[in-house]
Amino acid sequence: MIQAAYYADLMKRTLEGFGPRLAELRKARGLTQEELGQRVGVSQRMMAYYEQEDAQPPGALLVELARILEVSTDELLGVEPLKESVSARQARIRKRLRQVEELPPADQRAILKLVDALVVSREIEDDS
Known about the structure:
There is one protein chain. By secondary structure, this protein is mainly α. It has two domains: 1-86, lambda repressor-like DNA-binding domains (434 Repressor (Amino-terminal Domain)), CATH 1.10.260.40; 87-128. It has eight helices and no strands. The longest helix is centred in the last third of the chain and has 23 residues, at 105-127. The protein is elongated and about 65 Å long. The protein starts with a helix and ends with a helix.
């Protein structure tokens, strides 16, 4: 009987705040509902539903969401606190880097040369 009460409490605590936590993680990774939905194989509408306060996504989806959001399932479910907090600025940078990954190789090389040149110029300024 104690186990049943424990699991009921655990389930309640796990699901409390799941939707807002999912939305926070998605935004921290610079993803839209549509982008995350595409990656896990559900519609934008379903992602919006899962981000609601009382959402209960299927268990099989949790593993894929955690993988894409780069957190453990325990962090996603709220069993463990989030280990990493990503600022809005970092989320924008990550999103842009994903966009660069989708460019043709020649464009990627051009961007990397620009970034390398900028980094070198900053290092020279710092040494001055």
